[in-house]
Structures are given as structure tokens and as C-alpha cells.
Design brief:
- It is a single chain.
- This protein is 14% helix and 51% strand.
- By secondary structure, the chain is mainly beta.
- It has one domain (3-54, 74-102, 145-218, 229-397): Porin (Beta Barrel).
- It has a 16-stranded antiparallel beta barrel.
- α2 (28-35) packs antiparallel against α3 (41-54).
- Keywords: Signal.
- InterPro entries: Porin_dom_sf (IPR023614), Porin_O/P (IPR010870).
- It holds the Pfam family Porin_O_P.
Length: 398
Amino acid sequence: MKLNKLTQYFVLSAALVSAPSLAATNDALLDKLVEKGILTQGEAIEIASEIEQESQGISFSAKGKETLKLRFNGRMQFQYDHLAGELNGESTESTNHFYFRRVFLGVKASLANGVYAETVLDFAGDEQPEIAFDKVAFGYKFDDAFDAQLGFQKVPFGFEETSSSSSLQTIERSAANRFFADDIDFSSRHAGIHAQGDLGAGFSYALALVNGAQGEGSKLLGSAEGSNDLAAFGRIQWAGIAWMFGVDAGSQSNNSVVGEDVVAYTAYANYKYEGINLLGEFFSANMGDEEDVTGYALRASYKFNKFEPVIRYSYIETDSFDIDTDELIRRAPTDTDNLSLTGASGIGKEMHSFYLGANYYYSPAVTFMAGYEVADVETDADDEADVDGFRARVQVLW
């Protein structure tokens, strides 16, 4: 990456940070508590996220005269991407654009009889004016140990994947997470039966029995018999004062991308204390005739005052599956995906990705983020692709 281009990127980032202030209605008290040293900036951000999820809402009278509480929330992420690529030493076309990464509007209804329902819509689909379901489910909380839902939402697989994008320290999730969620359509959102609960002594669990086809929510994907296999996912976690450990596992029949049954697991550890946030995730999967895949991601950040530098390294390796570079590095130039120049098929690949960024928390509801990522992909046939570039984002929660 040339120095003058890198300088332009950070000038643009500074312009975004110096944009007119965006008002936040729920964060004045949190800011005051931070100023007085009662809360850290990180704790204030977490509380703001909880407010987004559990605000009091408005009371109405529902059918059958049941009390109904409605909670509205939203999330906007306006983003700039500039990514360049090379394929076997030859430069590819670059991506360079502003766009809305996410525009979420959500509402949750709670009935007096304990039943609740939640809908979250995403208005920032890649094909405008596409509106996508981010989450649509209803459920009942029997007690702290058993909360069950029927509907369409994320299954318990991958720490970063199941963490809200509003609380991530990096602009995009790691290449290892994106392989399972976006490249082979294994994790992420599925329709079916979901449940989670607390087991005591710091332990918790989550389970899902769902459609095997990712994204099959309101309509069948194709014919009624075309994708009727089920998938199962499970999670066990332990959380203490600073540490959290977890193991997730999933089994999916007839994966729509791989064309084979996929069995995968991930183990992770997260340490959070006094502004320090450390995360390590390890992934492994058996993909039938496509053989195995392994990967991991390591992330570290440190909050001081309103600033937070962050660094992450991610790695993914396949035995024979042809990974998609522009899926693992979101919106990378599409030409960097054409790695089978030798004519070989079923060759393995490996990707190394390095991210360096910084975040500025203007308030618990408003965050500015900037980051630079470098990724290198190699195949067993000695083809090579490189992607490097800059991203910047402004996020507002309400």
C-alpha cells in the first residue's frame, strides 16, 4: 500500500470523526457516571447496549386485555471501504465506496402471560430496496434455566458471530468466523426451535434444532423437498468476574455450499478487566469429501478514556475446499477470488489476516471506528492473492 494512499485514508477517517455531533437521548447519565469515576467507559458502553436490548418501552392494551409492553430500538452503521487487491502479482480493480452497513429497526412485545415476540428488520440489504429479517421470534421464559423461542435468529456458534455488531471492537468479524457464517453458510441465522438458560455457578447453555438451510425463514428455499434437512447446535459457557470460556458445536446435513454433511466446533476464551479485552477462538470442522478445515482468531484491545486501539490476527486453512476470498474479507475485490489459475481443483488454501484499528467512543450511543486490514491467501498450487485496505464507520444506537 503506497504511503500517500494510506495518508488519504487516515485524513478521511479524521474527517468522519470530526463530523457534526449526533445527539443521544439515553447516555447523559452514563457520561456523568464515567466523569465521576463510578463507571469505566467500557462499562458504560455495555450498559448502553443493555438499554438497547431491555428498555422499558410503552404499555398498551392487547387483544384479550392482556398488558402489552413494547420496546423499540435501532442501529445505524454508516461505513467507508477502500480495498485493493493483487492476484499472482497483478493488481485487481479496487472497491471504494460509502454505504450503510446496517440499518436495524427492532420492536419487542411482552405480554402479561409471559409470552414475548421480537422482530428486527435490516433495511441495508445489498440489493436495494431489500429488507431482510435479522431476527423474528416469539418465546416464553419458564425460569432462569429455560427460555425457549420459536423463530428465525442466530444459532449458538462462534463468539464473535453471536456477539452484536454494536459491541465488536473490529469493524468486521474475523476471517475464521466469516468462513462458517458466510462462506459455507453453516452458522448465523436459521429458523427453528431455540433455547438457552443459566445453570448456576457461572454456567449457561444454548441449544438450537433448526432448518439446515441458512436463511430459510419466512419462505422455503426452492421446492418443499429441496432443503428439508435439519441441523443441531449447542453451546456451554462459564463466566466469572473477568474470564469467560465456551465451547460450541454444530451438525448440518447436506450443506448447501459444500454439498456434504458438516460437523464443526469452536472453543474460545474471553478476558475483560480494567479496559483490557482479550479474545481467542479456535475452529475445526469435518466437511466429508471436502475434508477438514481449521482456523483461529486472536484479538486484543485496551480502552483508556474514550479511545480504544485494537489488533487482531486471523487464520483459516482448508484441506481441499476452495474458499472465497471476498467472503472472508468482506467486499474484497472479486478478482482476488479467482485463485485456480493452474486449472487444479480441490486444492487447499490458507489465509492470514492482520487487522489494526482504533475506536473513539463519543458517547455510549455514538462510536467512531477506523481500521486497516492486510490479508494473504495461498493455495497448494502456488497461486496467491493479496487484499489490503481501510475501513471507517460511524455507529449510532437508540
